[in-house]
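Action item from last meeting closed. Structure (162 res):
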């Protein structure tokens, strides 16, 4: 099954999908900046810059470029990095766990073996229902579904044929 499912659970937005590539390829696509720039934002948005330091306290920063040329930087901090299994980052902190004084979400990325591929789950936590609703209204389901499809296409292309 390659269909992406999204749902709301309290203050969390959740996305799940089976990806026909091994977990190590999905992990690599999340933790290798050159790969992350190829899939992270739904087209036609581009990601000209990405920094991912896959260790607790490491920097997680994405720069998105909109079709009109406007750039938006999204800084954050890696909280958990379990190679090939789990990546957790937040925009509430900068690298080194330095408080930012602002923030919107924490993302939990779970990468689990499933058959010959990967069960990919994203859970985005929000401080309250209002922030969750705001993120939902911003297009969480559409944007993260499109980006996940791009992720799947990339890692399935990179995966060796079975």
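Sequence:
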């Amino acid at each position: 099954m390659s269909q992406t499912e999204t749902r709301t659970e309290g203050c969390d937005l959740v996305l799940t999908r089976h990806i026909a590539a091994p977990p190590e390829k999905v992990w690599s696509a999340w933790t290798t900046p050159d790969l992350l720039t190829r899939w992270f934002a739904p087209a036609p948005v581009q990601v000209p810059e990405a920094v991912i330091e896959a260790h607790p306290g490491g920097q997680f920063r994405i720069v998105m470029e909109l079709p009109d040329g406007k750039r938006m930087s999204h800084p954050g901090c890696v909280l958990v990095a379990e190679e090939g299994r789990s990546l957790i980052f937040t925009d509430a902190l900068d690298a080194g766990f330095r408080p930012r004084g602002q923030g919107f979400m924490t993302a939990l990325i779970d990468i689990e073996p499933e058959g010959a591929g990967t069960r990919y789950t994203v859970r985005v936590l929000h401080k309250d229902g209002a922030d969750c609703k705001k993120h939902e209204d911003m297009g969480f389901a559409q944007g993260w579904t499109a980006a996940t499809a791009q992720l799947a296409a990339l890692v399935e292309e990179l995966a060796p044929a079975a």
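Note appended to the action item: The longest strand covers residues 106-114.
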